């Protein structure tokens, strides 16, 4: 009998496979790869944050075995580039952005993800975001992304069009082993503009 999995099941299965693969990297392998990825991300920041009027970087604190991209936020802080990070609201599946200026601005929230503390200033004007570092489990060369299944980021990306604002540059960082032939995509999934791994930097065709 031919088994045809639906989209939902295919996403769950791929999440499990990739999470398992990603956690098989040893410390040494991880560090070398992370350094290559972080260097490329800093290169992109240099390109896109040339002056203080270039807006802010939206990023996140890594959890589980995600690529550790936190050094990018440290680099931004050292250059006076503003950084915002999301706090998730489970009831509405929204993300609230807070400006963060040091690691002390984070505390462990749901799923153990370090999120900004609630007393920090909230960013409401989304037009000031120049670039978003987007977390993800799996990616393909068409720039499709598979997340953890909360739909937080896909919902968040929709806000730009709703508010008549141009979407910032969406940049994802992942290990090579997270790049798959084809990510199962549904109507709500938003593609990335740039995908950075330890061995490649892919740009969507609309990016020069
Ligand atoms: N570092 C980081 N921060 C992030 C994300 C991310 O992918 N990485 N998210 C990206 O969106 C949001 C958090 N999304 C998450 C969604 C689900 C699970 C999770 O553990 N889910 C369970 C299954 C739960 C269920 O079925 O209801 C699991 O995987 O075991 C974790 C995070 C916001 N912050
Ligand atoms: N823009 C949206 N409006 C309403 N529901 C949405 C939207 N985007 C995603 N969803 C819903 O959220 C759920 C999770 O979506 P999906 O599996 O694509 O998440 P994901 O991309 O893996 O997660 P995330 O974006 O949090 O990393 C699905 O039920 C989906 O229908």
Automatic annotation (TrEMBL):
Cited SUPFAM superfamilies: NagB/RpiA/CoA transferase-like
Alphabetized InterPro entries for the sequence: FTHF_cligase (IPR002698), FTHF_cligase-like_sf (IPR024185), NagB/RpiA_transferase-like (IPR037171)
Reactions mediated catalytically: (6S)-5-formyl-5,6,7,8-tetrahydrofolate + ATP = (6R)-5,10-methenyltetrahydrofolate + ADP + phosphate
UniProt keyword list: ATP-binding, Coiled coil, Ligase, Magnesium, Metal-binding, Nucleotide-binding
Pfam families named in the record: 5-FTHF_cyc-lig (PF01812)
Protein name: 5-formyltetrahydrofolate cyclo-ligase
Positions in coiled-coil regions: 8-35
Any one GO molecular-function label of the UniProt entry: metal ion binding
Amino acids binding substrate: 61, 66
Cofactors, names only: Mg(2+)
GO biological process: folic acid-containing compound biosynthetic process; tetrahydrofolate interconversion
Family statement drawn from the similarity comment of this UniProt entry: Belongs to the 5-formyltetrahydrofolate cyclo-ligase family.
EC number of the protein: 6.3.3.2
Binding-site residues, ATP: 11-15, 145-153
Organism, scientific name: Paenibacillus albiflavus
Enzyme class: ligase
